[in-house]
């Protein structure tokens, strides 16, 4: 390390206590360090004086460790500009294209919390399928830097039109990429009810190998929300289909929706997966999400359940999301969502209405409106974010948050430092496990 250069503490350092150690996290380098109290006091004293020369003299190895892991940096570095530059490079990466398609906005469930407007008999027709295939062909054929093409299915319930809409587009995209060096893969967000072995075999054939499937709590709670008909729940069928996917070595993100009503039976869910051979556990990830309409803090109870599921040998999401390195697809220039009617969107977490659309699919391309560029230029304009130690981890949320909060200060964690620390602590605990 060049010790002649002036040194400062990174503005992206955060510390919290864990089992008698001060755990430090730098959200730009994404590195953790565990410090005994004496070392932390040495760092803290230097930090308060904004002078690390004495630390270098007294404990050069510790100084080097802090520098190597990004807790100390060269004084001339503009950290905000460095984050912006990294974010811009990722969001404008043309080696990856991510396309979402909604075959329909209809669904065979009517969940109370769903933000989407379900449209009966909505289905992507043959002319729109042809335009979509032409659009994909242009993306693949005209981008010499393209190395990866990701095709995701959303809706509505996409499996309602698996054979009529999904398979033709899957097949044509697979055949376009097969003779190239482009890595093609596909995924699906589905309620999981209509999955069967025949469908899985077709998915295997065309590289559709990742599924996100939602459970609304344990059997009793889920069947109150997602039922096939009066007195006939869907929980057992969906769990059986998740197990079937895992046994076929398909990867499944099991999104468990959490509300105060869900919490009492939350840990019971794992019991229904004990029949799965442990060799297939690696193909299931349990991902806990608080239902967005729920107010109040239930994070501690959710964290307890994360620990419990891990203790039973299953993978569990930390609940953290690095929005700098893994920014939302909607933030990226090389992404589009095509609705069943040919309207184009960037965000999939809002209702797919014409008022929310940002473009229209025509033969071979999407004509984007003014909101498209405004979205892509919307990040890093919120003052509280620019002063926050977890900016590189959180990013101030996604471009949709930025658009919806233009001209005002906001924080996706409600300006609550304890929530930010909890987010980082969960990430640390996941690494330990």
Account of the protein in words:
- The protein is an alpha/beta fold.
- It folds into two domains: 7-77, no CATH class; 93-368, Aldolase class I (TIM Barrel).
- Helix content is 35%, strand content 20%.
- The protein has 15 helices and 18 strands.
- It has helices at residues 37-49, 53-58, 60-68, 79-91, 126-142, 162-177, 197-205, 219-225, 235-247, 299-311, 370-376, 383-386, 391-394, 399-404, 417-432, and strands at 7-9, 13-18, 21-26, 31-35, 72-74, 96-101, 148-153, 183-190, 208-215, 227-229, 232-233, 251-258, 284-290, 315-316, 335-338, 343-345, 359-362, 365-368.
- It has an eleven-stranded mixed sheet with strand order 14-13-12-9-8-7-6-15-16-17-18. The protein has a three-stranded antiparallel sheet with strand order 2-3-4.
- Helix 5 packs parallel to helix 6.
- The longest helix is centred in the N-terminal third of the chain and has 17 residues, at 126-142.
- The mean pLDDT is 91.
Write the layout of secondary structure elements.
Blueprint: E1 7-9, E2 13-18, E3 21-26, E4 31-35, H1 37-49, H2 53-58, H3 60-68, E5 72-74, H4 79-91, E6 96-101, H5 126-142, E7 148-153, H6 162-177, E8 183-190, H7 197-205, E9 208-215, H8 219-225, E10 227-229, E11 232-233, H9 235-247, E12 251-258, E13 284-290, H10 299-311, E14 315-316, E15 335-338, E16 343-345, E17 359-362, E18 365-368, H11 370-376, H12 383-386, H13 391-394, H14 399-404, H15 417-432
Parallel strand pairs: 6-7, 6-15, 7-8, 8-9, 9-12, 12-13, 13-14
Antiparallel strand pairs: 1-5, 2-3, 3-4, 10-11, 15-16, 16-17, 17-18
């Amino acid at each position: 390390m060049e010790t002649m250069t002036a040194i400062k503490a990174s503005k992206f350092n955060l510390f919290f206590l864990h089992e008698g150690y001060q755990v430090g996290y730098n959200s730009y380098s994404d590195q953790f360090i565990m410090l005994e109290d004496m070392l932390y006091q040495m760092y803290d004293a230097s930090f308060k004086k904004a002078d690390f020369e004495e630390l270098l003299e007294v404990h050069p190895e510790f100084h080097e460790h802090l520098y190597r892991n990004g807790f100390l940096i060269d004084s001339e570095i503009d950290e905000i500009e460095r984050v912006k530059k990294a974010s811009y490079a990722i969001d404008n990466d043309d080696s990856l294209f991510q396309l979402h398609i909604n075959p329909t906005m209809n669904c065979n469930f009517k969940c109370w919390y769903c933000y989407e407007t379900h449209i009966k008999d909505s289905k992507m027709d043959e002319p729109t399928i042809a335009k979509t295939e032409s659009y994909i062909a242009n993306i693949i054929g005209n981008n010499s830097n393209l190395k990866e093409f990701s095709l995701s299915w959303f809706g509505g319930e996409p499996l309602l039109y698996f054979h009529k809409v999904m398979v033709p587009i899957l097949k044509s995209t697979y055949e376009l990429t097969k003779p190239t060096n482009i890595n093609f893969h596909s995924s699906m967000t589905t309620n999981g009810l209509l999955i069967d072995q025949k469908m899985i075999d077709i998915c295997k054939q065309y590289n559709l190998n990742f599924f996100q499937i939602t459970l609304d709590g344990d059997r009793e709670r889920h069947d109150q929300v997602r039922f096939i008909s009066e007195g006939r729940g869907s929980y057992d069928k969906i769990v059986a289909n998740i197990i079937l996917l895992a046994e076929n070595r398909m990867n499944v993100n099991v999104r468990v929706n959490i509300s105060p009503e869900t919490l009492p039976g939350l840990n019971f869910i794992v019991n229904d997966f004990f029949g799965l051979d442990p060799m297939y556990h690696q193909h299931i990830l349990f991902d806990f999400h608080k239902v967005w309409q729920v107010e109040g803090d239930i994070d501690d109870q959710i964290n307890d359940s994360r620990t419990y599921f891990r203790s039973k040998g299953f993978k569990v999401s930390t609940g953290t999301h690095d929005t700098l390195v893994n920014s939302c697809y909607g933030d990226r220039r090389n992404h589009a969502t095509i609705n069943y009617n040919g309207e184009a969107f960037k965000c999939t977490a809002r209702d797919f209405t014409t008022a929310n659309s940002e473009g229209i699919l025509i033969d071979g391309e999407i004509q984007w409106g003014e909101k498209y560029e405004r979205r892509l230029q919307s990040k890093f304009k919120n003052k509280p974010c620019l002063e926050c130690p977890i900016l590189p981890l959180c990013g101030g949320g996604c471009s949709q948050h930025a658009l919806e909060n233009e001209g005002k200060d906001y924080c996706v964690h409600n300006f609550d430092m304890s929530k930010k620390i909890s987010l980082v602590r969960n990430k640390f605990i996941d690494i330990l496990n």
